[in-house]
Design brief:
85 residues, alpha+beta, 1 helix
Length: 85
């Protein structure tokens, strides 16, 4: 299982001690949400595998499903997309 202790404050030291990367923040948020009620593992081609069933890739609005298209139960969780009128 994935250790949450290092994922709560994702930082990029090259840009300053407290500079949060949006990609790391997205993944940390998703990891915390999934791990509350599910077993979460790292996956070699995606970000996570949940309950040994679902392959999850976390990305911004420009990501498609090509990276994980070989897996039956795979999903892309997107951020930074507009909804509504």
């Amino acid at each position: 299982m994935v250790d949450l202790s290092q994922s709560i404050y994702p930082v990029q030291p090259q840009q300053g001690q407290n500079s949060i990367l949006i990609g790391n923040l997205r993944e940390a948020f998703a990891l915390q949400q999934f791990s509350a009620n599910h077993e979460v593992f790292l996956h070699e081609k995606a970000d996570f595998q949940v309950d040994n069933k679902f392959v999850i890739e976390i990305r911004g609005k420009n990501k498609d499903k090509r990276q994980i298209s070989d897996f039956d139960k795979s999903f892309v969780f997107m951020d930074d997309i507009e909804i509504g009128p």
